[in-house]
Design goal:
Number of strands: 12
Bound molecules: zinc ion
CATH superfamily: Class I glutamine amidotransferase (GATase) domain
CATH architecture: 3-Layer(aba) Sandwich
Oligomer: single chain
Distance between the termini: 85 Å
Strand order of the largest sheet: 1-3-2-4-5-12-11-10
Strand content: 15-25%
Shape: globular
Structural class: alpha/beta
Order of helices and strands: HHEEHEEHEHEEEEEHEEHHH
Radius of gyration: 21 Å
Helix content: 25-40%
CATH topology: Rossmann fold
Number of domains: 1
CATH class: Alpha Beta
Largest sheet: 8 strands, mixed
């Protein structure tokens, strides 16, 4: 009888552990690792213990708030914080009258953090674990007020239902499972529309996990595709949540939209950009400019005639702010060659 309290405690502990295990199992597929991580290089080394934090850059009146998701796919993949820091810096330093705040590791804890935002940028994992899902109701009045919303890479994916409907309303499109697909492929961008977000873009090719066949608003109402390319037929795979479906396979040889601008009827703006799996890609000028233009436009600001200017980050700048330590066998030379090639492409045009 004496041991009963201990037993009770043990039972309570077991129950707590069981609940935690169930919760984490339930969340695992939704958190994106299973969804998007299949083809990603998994880093065996652990992520840096990145505490929630915020970094402010610049002093201007127009505030762009970046929500950077936590560590995800290993070194230099889904490098949400490192990517947000590069983009935030580029905007605050080059677009007059702007300032940027970057929140690390998910949604800001301070409920007032979004109050002064001209646009909110989310670069995070998505799916059922998308950081926006618990905050849809608090975003509603901000979106009504005309605050812009820009989503990068996996952050374009939310579950069908209320989250999907809200992204259709605020951003004009989203990644819907069993409709959209997420292959890696080299996209060739040859022409661009006459739209502020396309300013300064020059033809370029880019290998990325370019999701395509988004669920867009009916008849593309208010949606202007900014980056479009024809995916290789082999990327239109067999049936699966993110691999293919009859509609995707029926579109062989047709262009797909990988970034888009959305003008809401009430004046607010949205921007979606499906690339951004690989961190080094931010060093490609047109790739980076498309994202910067989209964010600045979503904030209701004027995109300069040549696009948002920004210096190409150096390899050292790209290596900064990563969530994971650099692997010992990291091939620096390979990345340097890629950066040199991209610089050459720009200079030769
Ligand atoms: Zn990815």
């Amino acid at each position: 009888m004496k041991s009963q309290p201990t037993l009770r405690l043990t039972r309570a502990l077991r129950l707590a552990i069981a609940v935690l295990v169930t919760l984490s199992l339930g969340l695992a597929p939704a958190s994106g690792w299973a969804a998007d991580g299949k083809k990603a290089g998994k880093s065996k080394r652990k992520a840096e213990p990145a505490a929630a934090s915020q970094t402010r850059i610049g002093q201007g009146d127009k505030e762009i708030v970046f929500v950077a998701g936590g560590p995800s796919h290993g070194y230099a993949s889904h490098a949400h914080y490192a990517g947000c820091m590069l983009l935030a810096k580029a905007i605050a330093e080059n677009v007059p009258n702007t300032r940027a705040v970057v929140h690390r590791n998910g949604w800001p804890k301070d409920p007032k953090a979004l109050d002064g935002a001209a646009a909110i940028v989310i670069y995070s994992d998505g799916g059922g674990g998308h950081p926006i899902i618990p905050h849809l109701d608090e975003l509603e009045p901000l979106m009504k007020k005309g605050v812009g919303l820009a989503l990068l890479h996996y952050a374009v994916e939310v579950p069908k239902g209320k989250p999907g409907d809200k992204l259709l309303e605020w951003v004009g499109g989203y990644f819907e499972v069993y409709w959209s697909v997420n292959p890696f492929w080299k996209a060739e961008f040859k022409t661009f529309p006459d739209h502020p977000v396309a300013r300064g873009l020059r033809p370029f090719t880019m290998n990325d996990e370019w999701y395509y066949h988004m669920r867009f608003r009916e008849n593309m109402e208010g949606v202007t595709p900014i980056l479009s390319a024809v995916p290789p037929d082999k990327t239109r795979g067999p049936d699966g949540p993110r691999s293919g479906n009859p509609t995707v396979r029926a579109r062989k040889g047709m262009p797909e939209h990988l970034a888009w601008a959305y003008q809401r009827p009430d004046g607010g703006r949205g921007f979606g950009f499906t690339g951004g799996h690989t961190h080094w890609n931010w060093a490609n000028q047109s790739f980076r400019t498309a994202a910067l233009n989209g964010i600045v436009w979503a904030a209701g600001l004027e995109v300069p005639p040549g696009g948002v200017p920004s210096k190409t980050p150096t390899l050292e700048e790209l290596e900064a702010n990563q969530d994971f330590p650099q692997p010992k066998d990291f091939n620096r030379r390979h990345v340097e060659d890629m950066l040199r090639l991209w610089r050459g492409e720009v200079e030769n045009k």
